[in-house]
Specification:
The complex is a heterodimer of chains A (443) and B (313).
Chain A: E1 10-13, H1 17-28, E2 33-36, E3 48-50, E4 56-58, E5 64-65, H2 66-71, E6 78-80, E7 86-90, E8 93-96, H3 105-118, H4 127-135, H5 137-152, H6 162-165, H7 171-184, E9 204-207, H8 212-221, E10 226-227, E11 232-238, E12 241-247, E13 250-253, E14 256-259, H9 266-269, E15 270-271, E16 284-295, E17 304-306, E18 316-319, H10 320-323, E19 332-341, H11 346-349, H12 352-366, H13 370-373, E20 374-387, H14 394-402, E21 409-411, H15 413-417, H16 423-441
Parallel strand pairs in A: 1-2, 1-14, 2-10, 7-17, 11-15, 14-21
Antiparallel strand pairs in A: 3-4, 5-9, 6-9, 7-8, 11-12, 12-13, 16-19, 16-20, 17-18, 18-19
Helix pairs in contact in A: 1-8, 1-16, 3-4, 4-5
Chain B: E1 5-6, E2 18-24, E3 36-41, E4 47-49, E5 52-53, H1 55-60, H2 73-94, E6 103-107, H3 113-121, E7 127-132, H4 135-143, E8 149-150, E9 163-169, H5 178-188, E10 189-200, H6 205-210, E11 225-226, H7 229-238, E12 242-249, H8 253-265, H9 270-275, H10 281-296, E13 302-308
Parallel strand pairs in B: 6-7, 6-9, 7-8, 9-10
Antiparallel strand pairs in B: 1-5, 2-3, 3-4, 4-11, 10-13, 12-13
Helix pairs in contact in B: 2-3
The chains are: A alpha/beta (443), B alpha/beta (313).
Chain lengths: 443, 313
């Protein structure tokens, strides 16, 4: 079977973790393939840069477990996270997430009432309904919904309930995992993998050289089959099956296409079928990551601080050095401020200095004196950072998650599936989907 | 020690459609500070190391003091003597019906423990050979006064269709390509000749309890493929060997190692960890008592498989 398609490789679109996982899987099965990356480097959103002072900048927070590190054979290049915890900053006070919130009687009673009610009623179709039914109206309205709205850029009634369903770890299980974390002194990954079951034996690690080393390691194994600066412009379908692609103006017959391209651009790329109509309506949220460099400790209470109040420009703060000390110079700290935005809006078009000022001004209210400790910043803009789960296209999204509807076209990864997947989920889901794809195609 | 890793397919199905079951390290010998991943085939449930160190790396994972290179009475005392008796009885049961002058081969024979038992307790007319690919095993066997072949059976050019019985006792799980080896074994067996495989059982409760990290059967990174009754039969079938029986049997070893690995990994008391070893009669007695009823209901810690090369019709 493979001989028959030797002149027709499988085309992989995109050199992020999903594309590279697919490439490795095809390589192991000796299926010919070419990976096309439109930019001049692999890694996609998993890029990292290191400056002369010794700060490392990744595109937002990534979660890597010892399990994923072992799966790609790089556990030796990773180090266990020093610490991980989340807090919620609300009305000048920090609550540890989630148990600290439950020490507040108003949140606790609201959550208990909602939980008992949810036993007899459904959780609803929108994010607002879902969070209210799961956490109670107090926690939902004051914390979960504002955070989701800031993250998604849409109203809680417009966002589908699926956005919250990945955070499915129950309280009892969470307590068990936290106890194990205390006993083993490891940062056990809780709530950061939904495809692969959490375990007391799966904990957070991080590459010493920043997150991009994961993709570099994978790319090294398939280096000869990667074409950089190669933009796939068209996917041509004939007789209800993918037949060829057009890359940099040239046509190439292919046995199939594995795409990690953003879902909403696929209808513009595909020729010869209307099966992808409607995907162009899917929206992505843009993000700006403002990395503030500081003298001394950051002043935040934990690695991640959620900020649901709208008066702040950011919704999440990450103290990189607290969790990953080797990414920050000694005696310094780094806070990454996540700002959700739209490409072209006032934040997106603001200068880097303006964004730094904006964040420092807001942080001054939380951490007085932070401005005096500031020693520069690095701003990273990501136009397509997170899929927005809108009710308007939720049915189509669910169908898309299952299958592309075009023979010979498989869409994988967070962009490709239009799902909020974490790295380990992307890795395993891609492998399973590619396995099924090869089986269906008789490869 | 840093390894070069290679990605492999399930040896039974020939594809890599798996999910992760465990991440662990070399708890027993500490030959590396690397972590390794065991995955389980979603089609046939075979458990295998993937990615795994390449063949050069795997050799480095067997230290000088590896137990199979030298399992002797001076170090293991009472445990050695008890095991000798039990194993001799077991071996003779598998040899039942063998004719005078029968040829027997023990593949992966280590320091020749079983070869010596067969020569001592079997019929004097039997010809018993041993093969091991590691020179340290060959030296260990010499100390017992036994000469064994060094190399893999694929390379050794042994006479085809010349053996009445081939033994693979705690061997198949160490082999990089079990299917290729079983095909070679099939070539070496006389028509009607038997193959006995003893290996760890992934269908056992100790695997269920400790399987996501500390299970002794993983023996990271030395056990490359691990089986249950069904997929062991499937594999042998692919190699042209018909299943006579695959039964589970009693073994305290994986229980002992699993508890030891767990205590070591969770920084438990070292006095307790040190009592959980293969040279501890107490630990072995306790875990024998645990595994005995399990083996009686068919879910013991190890598998005993008997396969036959069918006579051509």
């Amino acid at each position: 079977m493979i001989n028959a398609i030797e002149s027709r490789p499988v085309a992989i679109l995109g050199g992020g973790i999903a594309g590279l996982t697919a490439a490795l899987h095809l390589k192991n099965h000796r299926v010919p393939f070419v990976l096309f990356e439109s930019s001049d480097a692999v890694a996609g959103l998993m890029k990292s840069e290191r400056d002369d002072e010794g700060y490392t900048y990744d595109c937002g927070v990534h979660f890597l477990t010892n399990r994923l590190a072992a799966a790609i054979g790089m556990s030796k290049d990773c180090q266990p996270m020093a610490r991980y915890g989340e807090t919620v900053h609300l009305r000048g006070r920090c609550y540890s997430y989630p148990l600290g919130l439950l020490t507040s009687p108003k949140y606790l009673t609201s959550a208990l009432f909602a939980k008992s009610k949810s036993l007899i009623s459904s959780s609803g179709a929108t994010a607002r309904q879902y969070y209210s039914s799961q956490y109670g109206s107090r926690l939902a309205e004051e914390i979960a919904i504002p955070l989701t709205e800031a993250w998604s850029g849409a109203d809680g009634d417009e966002i589908a309930s699926a956005v919250g369903q990945k955070f499915s770890t129950g309280l009892a299980r969470m307590m068990m995992l936290r106890t194990a974390a205390k006993m083993t002194k490891r940062v056990i990954g809780i709530g950061y993998a939904s495809t692969i079951v959490e375990s007391t034996n799966s904990w957070h690690v991080y590459p010493r050289g920043g997150i991009s080393t994961v993709c570099q390691r994978m790319a090294d194994l398939v280096r000869g089959s990667i074409k950089l600066n190669s933009k796939v412009e068209q996917i041509r379908v004939s007789n209800d099956r993918v037949e060829s692609i057009v890359v940099n103006g040239e046509s190439l017959p292919v046995a199939g296409v594995i795409s990690t391209a953003p879902v909403h651009v696929l209808p513009r790329m595909i020729r010869g079928t209307n099966a992808l109509d409607g995907l162009e309506k899917f929206e992505y949220r843009a993000m700006i990551f403002v990395n503030l460099k500081l003298d001394g400790p950051s002043g935040l209470t934990d690695v991640v601080t959620w900020v649901p109040e709208r008066s702040y420009p950011f919704f999440r703060l990450s103290d990189i050095g607290m969790g990953l000390p080797w990414l920050v110079p000694k005696g310094k700290s780094q806070i990454t401020c996540d700002i959700g935005c739209k490409v072209g809006d006032e934040h997106w078009t603001m200068s880097d200095d303006g964004l730094t000022e904006l964040c420092l001004n807001a942080l001054e209210k939380m951490i007085p004196g932070i401005r005096q400790r500031s020693c520069g910043s690095r701003v990273v803009r990501v136009p397509l950072a997170y899929p927005i789960f809108k009710v308007a296209y939720e049915a189509k999204r669910k169908a898309w998650e299952e299958c592309s509807g075009v023979n010979g076209l498989l869409s994988v990864g967070r962009n490709g599936e239009f799902a909020h997947l974490l790295m380990e989920d992307v890795f395993w889901r891609t492998r399973w989907k590619v396995s099924r794809f090869l089986q269906n195609m008789g490869l | 020690m840093g390894f070069q890793f290679e990605h492999v397919l399930c040896n039974v199905c020939g594809v890599d459609d798996c999910h992760p079951v465990a991440v662990g390290e070399d708890f027993e010998y500490g030959t590396s500070d690397q972590e390794f991943m065991a995955v389980q085939c979603r089609r046939c449930d075979t458990v295998y190391l993937n990615p795994r160190p390449d063949s050069d790396g795997i050799r480095l994972a067997y230290p000088e003091n590896y137990h199979a290179f030298q399992f002797d009475e001076s170090e293991f005392g009472l445990v050695y003597r008890v095991r000798q008796r039990l194993e001799a009885r077991r071996l003779l049961r598998w040899c039942r019906g063998l004719p005078d002058g029968a040829a027997i081969l023990d593949i992966g024979c280590g320091d020749g423990f079983h070869v010596e038992l067969l020569r001592k307790f079997g019929k004097p007319t039997w010809e018993v050979d041993g093969v091991d690919s590691d020179s340290r095993a060959v030296s260990g066997a010499r100390k017992r006064g036994i000469d064994i072949h060094q190399g893999s059976i694929e390379e050794l050019n042994l006479k085809q269709e010349s053996y009445d019985l081939i033994l693979m006792i705690m061997t198949i799980e160490h082999v990089c390509d079990p299917l290729a080896m079983l095909k070679a074994v099939s070539g070496l067996l006389k028509p009607g000749g038997r193959l006995v495989i003893v290996t760890d059982n992934t269908g056992s409760p100790d695997f269920r309890i400790f399987g996501n990290r500390h299970w002794g059967g993983y023996h990271f990174p030395r056990h490359l493929y691990l089986f249950n009754r069904r997929n062991l039969s499937q594999l042998c079938d692919r190699a042209g060997l018909k299943t006579v029986s695959v039964k589970s049997a009693l073994s305290p070893v994986n229980w002992t190692y699993s508890f030891r690995n767990w205590i070591q990994d969770w920084k438990g008391p070292s006095w307790l960890k040190n009592r959980l070893s293969l040279s501890s009669p107490l630990a072995l007695a306790i875990f024998t008592a645990i595994d005995l009823p399990l083996s009686m209901v068919g879910i013991g810690a190890i598998l005993h498989g008997v396969f036959v090369k069918e006579k051509s019709k």
